[in-house]
Amino acid sequence: MRESRADTARAIWQAIGLHALLFALMFVGLLWTRAAAPVSAAGSPVTAELIDADALSPAMQRTLLKRPKPAELPKPEPEEAAPLPQPLPEPRPEDSVATPQPQPQDFIPVPDNENQEAVVDQPTPIAAEEDKVQEAKRKQDQVDLTERERQEQIEKQRRLSEQQDQERQQKLAEIRRKREAAAREADLAEQRLRQIADVRSRPSPAESAGSSDASPPPGNNGADTGLQARYAAALQEAILSKWTRPETIPVGSRCTLLIRQLPGGQVMSAEVSEPCAYDEQGRRSIEAAVRKAQPLPYAGFEKVFARDLTLKFTAQDR
Q1: Which of 302, 313, 193, 158 has its CA nearest to residue 249?
Q2: What is the mean pLDDT of residues 163-186?
């Protein structure tokens, strides 16, 4: 049964009343054991003189010797001490009269399914065990902190490595860009020098009209003696001078090239077209060789010059 606030207050007042009763009994016992005051009698006090026994007369001395001995009074028996008052027994909770509750007990909507006996039977943790648990927890926290710091250090090193790799790639890209720009400038300078040399070596219109027996550019010892065949042979020779045949391209294999150029042999674009027996590396290398070979042959081939040119290139060694 649950103890109410009224039961607690009643038990406190009963304890206070019991202590007050014990204090009153102790006070009465002290008054009981107090000694009685001496009795004051009326009249003059008794006087006596001290006389030496040797100064008395012989008759008085004989009388004193014959004096009977006083009767011995019986010794008074010691009175039994009154027993001290004993404290009243404290009332036990089970002896108290149960008073009705002032108001009904609140309804518990959810029953308590916890086994109270099992809870009570559980041993109370010892201080040493609590210290061990706390020490183990501190060690685990330290291990977790160390592992977290190690992971943060690894992540920091990874970010630093990525940043360094990115900076390195940027530097390499900048170097490649500068090299490509320098190579383009060198190619442009070489092209200008070739154009200047071609212009200087080209005969004037008057000289061309005066010398009708001027021979066309040399061929490649083929059966076709036409200007178109000699122009194709000159283009083949110019591209071969700038091309290094990859090992994957067999000698004699052919590939179609689409070349777009300006008068004077300046190459605008060079692309590989089908049919072409070259692999990807061979195609990229032959396109680069066409750009390096500019300006392409032009002087003497003005009659067969074409801005959009289709060339059947044959792989050969220089």
Answers
A1: 313
A2: 88
Q: Are the C-beta atoms of 56 and 67 separated by less than 8 Å?
A: no
Q: What are phi and psi of 293, to 5 degrees?
A: -80, -5
Contact between 314 and 250 under an 8 Å Cβ cutoff? The reply is no
- Residue 134 buriedness (CB in 10 A; 0-12 / 13-18 / 19+): exposed
Q: Give 103-127 pLDDT, tens digit per residue.
A: 655 555 555 566 555 555 555 656 7
Q: How many whole angstroms separate alpha carbon 39 and alpha carbon 34?
A: 16
Of 262, 263, 316, 307, whose CA–CA distance to 289 is shortest? 316
103, amino acid identity: Q
**Which token pair is 77?**
């028996």
Which pLDDT tens digit goes with each residue over 54-71?
Answer: 766 777 777 777 766 666
SS3 46: coil
The model's pTM is 0.32
Is 218 in contact with 238 (CB distance < 8 Å)?
A: no
Residue 291 CA to residue 173 CA, distance in Å, equals 22
Long-range contacts from 179-185, C-beta under 8 angstroms, 24+ separation: none
Look up tokens 């110019």; give the residue: 238
The helix-helix angle for 227-240 and 280-292 (nearest 10°) equals 110
Residue 18 CB: number of other CB atoms within 10 A? 15
CA nearest neighbour of 259 among 300, 289, 216, 302: 289
